[in-house]
Amino acid sequence: MPRKEQGWITFQTSEEERKILEEFCQDSQRTKTEILRELVRGLNKHQASQASIPTKQTITQVNQENLAIPTTEVSSPKKALKVSSRNILKGVVKKVVTGAVNCEVTLEIVHKVELTSMITRTSVEELGLIVGEEAYAVIKSNDIVIAKE
């Protein structure tokens, strides 16, 4: 069994995370160890620029015949989102009804308890909201009206 004193690091990942890492290794033709070392070495660099907004850069190389070589996407590490709202409900996307401009997104908060929100189609696309994935409902309201017939 590897020991910390020998420099070994072990951690658990989800099946999805493992697949992402393996695909990245294959695409970049690097080992998991090389990728982890690069990530750890880059932590100091990223701490200095923590205030910056995460961005994605696309690197395109051109060979001598001016033909584009496949691109590599490099992204900054994500920071946890902090919000002032105190009403944050975690749920699973149950339904996305897409309209011309807006979308109706339904989250299941707990079994048979659903919350529906109208948001822009652009927001749905940027957030990558798809049925079955986790999302959060962040509620910020001055008042809630209760009505009865």
How do you describe this structure in short?
The protein has 149 residues and is an alpha+beta fold. Helices cover 26% and strands 34% of the residues.
Number of helices: 3
Strand order of the largest sheet: 5-4-3-6
- H-E order: HHEEEEEHE
- In helices, the fraction of residues equals 25-40%
**Mean pLDDT across every amino acid position:** 75
Low-confidence stretches: 51-63, 68-72
End-to-end separation: 68 Å
Strand content: 25-35%
**Global outline:** elongated
Largest sheet: 4 strands, antiparallel
Alpha-beta classification: alpha+beta
As a whole number of angstroms, the C-alpha radius of gyration is 21 Å
Give a structural overview.
The structure is a single chain. By secondary structure, the protein is of the alpha+beta class. 26% of the residues lie in helices and 34% in strands. The protein is built from three helices and six strands; from the N terminus they run ααβββββαβ. β1 and β2 form a beta hairpin. The longest helix is centred in the N-terminal third of the chain and has 17 residues, at 32-48. It is elongated, with a radius of gyration of 21 Å. The protein starts with 14 loop residues before the first helix and ends in a 10-residue tail after the last strand.
